[in-house]
């Protein structure tokens, strides 16, 4: 079961990068998370990861044809 979930996550990870602008935005989102973590700023890290996950979810909904 875990292998199946991991396979699905990898599939979605690579396909989200096909959405216009997603790759660049993802890099910025990850950088914001790393910056917050390096400063040990829990609130900023929480906001950064929440923003990233929300943006990925919106991308999946907007470009659902890429995923199904």
Automatic annotation (TrEMBL):
<keyword id="KW-0805">Transcription regulation</keyword>
<keyword id="KW-0804">Transcription</keyword>
<dbReference type="InterPro" id="IPR008920">
    <property type="entry name" value="TF_FadR/GntR_C"/>
</dbReference>
<feature type="domain" description="GntR C-terminal">
    <location>
        <begin position="1"/>
        <end position="54"/>
    </location>
</feature>
<keyword id="KW-0238">DNA-binding</keyword>
<dbReference type="Pfam" id="PF07729">
    <property type="entry name" value="FCD"/>
</dbReference>
<dbReference type="GO" id="GO:0003677">
    <property type="term" value="F:DNA binding"/>
</dbReference>
<protein>
    <recommendedName>
        <fullName>GntR C-terminal domain-containing protein</fullName>
    </recommendedName>
</protein>
<dbReference type="InterPro" id="IPR011711">
    <property type="entry name" value="GntR_C"/>
</dbReference>
